[in-house]
Amino acid sequence: MKLSLQSPGKALNKAYLKEKVGRAEIEIFKASFLKMLARIDEGESEEHGKNIVADFLKNVWYQDAYEINTKDRKDLVIHTGKTAKDPVGVILEVKKPGNKAEMISGEKPNAKAMQELLLYYLRERIDGDNKFIRQLIITNIYEWFLIDEKFAEQYFFGNGQLRKDYEEFKQSGKPTSFFYEQIAKPFFDALDADIPCTNFDIRTYEKVVANANKADDHKLIALYKILSPVHLLKGKFANDSNSLDKGFYEELLHIIGLEEVKDGGKKLIQRKKKADEASLIENTITKLEDRESLRNLNNASSFGATKNEQINGVALELCITWVNRVLFMKLLEAQLLKYHKGNKDFLFLNTRLVHDYDELSNLFFGVLAERPTSRKERLAGKFKAVPYLNSSLFERTELERTAIDTSNLDNQLQLPLAAHTVLKDDKGKTLAGSLSTLDYLFRFLD
């Protein structure tokens, strides 16, 4: 394993980086920063260091809004809410400033601190089934290494052999030293990955913090924001273009056939309890069952332990693939329309051209995946405004080859409109009734 080190400025969301930080916030940050440095005693215990880090984070960003404390054997965690009952969002491994042997570096990532962090992450992610982890941090108060959890999900949790070794370790009753030496260390040695990691040393900012020249404070903005809840817990901010509109999100789930529910402190997305047979996922499940598609899959067990779980898992993955393509095509259509100054000949995502699921399949594979010169004559004429996209998004997936694709779905079903649909009638009133699912999806995206 290698760490691809990047500065706070490079790691931050660019829109968030541009947001102004108030004078009061900067002054609190500077005062807390200097207080933290003054408290560091390299001869003190690791526990002493944890308290310094926790106090610094609380004083600047997290006080009264997010719980920061130890949890089980974890050095320090930041919860996603005000209490210890809220899920853990950030796991920190804190080392003494003088403990160079166990601290990681860019040149030596496979050190005791990384091995310990891996164990704490697996305990939280597997044993705690925690899907709310956002960041993993290693620090000795001076140096900080931040790894986005999406990379841990990909390379650590996503490694089947590591999960198997961890489960066997849990059952063995062996000490944690065995996990570090016999599992974690060889795992990191063998891991062929270059993992992005935000890295900084607070000592390089000390002169800027200590001087009285406020004009230098702009040099602290990235450091201030990299440890904020917006970045560490991936919270929302004023100009966050990545945040989903609530109405869009809920109605899209309705069309797919899903709903968001609360399970304790968690939010889960699941099949609607009151299922609509015309929704994408229910239509898909029906066809998978009718065609006994699981028989064709070599990896059905990866979607669940029971036949019902497997059917649901396969259907969900297929629906996500199809909706991703349609969303991408909607963005493409909007750009074509803009580029051609509103010429409606470039509108192709509608039931006039794509009147059923068979034609949607043709659009995926016979149009977007084919150069114009290679398209069948009928499709070439009908979709002449649609460019060829050299993208893997429009290649048939393994599931589409072995299970079903959109051409197998039932075209006759009508989906009831969501109670608070965005669709309006000619008089501007909220539309009621039902539409074919494909027509509903296209009109909704319009």
Write the layout of secondary structure elements.
Elements lengths: L1 E5 L1 H4 L2 H5 L4 H17 L6 H17 L5 E4 L2 E6 L8 E7 L17 H16 L7 E5 L3 E6 H9 L2 H13 L3 H15 L3 E8 L4 H5 L10 H6 L2 H4 L13 H11 L1 E6 L2 E6 L8 H11 L16 H33 L17 H12 L8 H6 L15 H5 L11 E3 L17 E3 H9 L1
Parallel strand pairs: 1-7, 4-5
Antiparallel strand pairs: 2-3, 3-4, 5-6, 6-7, 8-9, 10-11
Helix pairs in contact: 3-4, 5-8, 7-8, 13-14
Tell me, briefly, the overall form: globular
Number of helices, where a helix is a run of at least 4 consecutive DSSP H or I residues = 18
Output mean pLDDT.
93
Radius of gyration, in Å, reads 26 Å
Sheet with the most strands: spatial strand order:
1-7-6-5-4-3-2
Helix content: 40-55%
* Low-confidence runs: none
- SSE order: EHHHHEEEHEEHHHEHHHHEEHHHHHEEH
Strand content: 5-15%
The chain-level structural class is alpha+beta
Distance between the termini: 45 Å
Q: Let me know the number of strands.
A: 11
Largest sheet: 7 strands, mixed
Report on this model:
- Helices cover 44% and strands 13% of the residues.
- It has helices at residues 8-11, 14-18, 23-39, 46-62, 112-127, 149-157, 160-172, 176-190, 206-210, 221-226, 229-232, 246-256, 280-290, 307-339, 357-368, 377-382, 398-402, 437-445; strands at residues 2-6, 68-71, 74-79, 88-94, 135-139, 143-148, 194-201, 258-263, 266-271, 414-416, 434-436.
- Strand 8 and strand 9 (266-271) form a beta hairpin.
- Helix 3 packs antiparallel against helix 4 and helix 7 packs antiparallel against helix 8 (176-190).
- The relative contact order is 0.09.
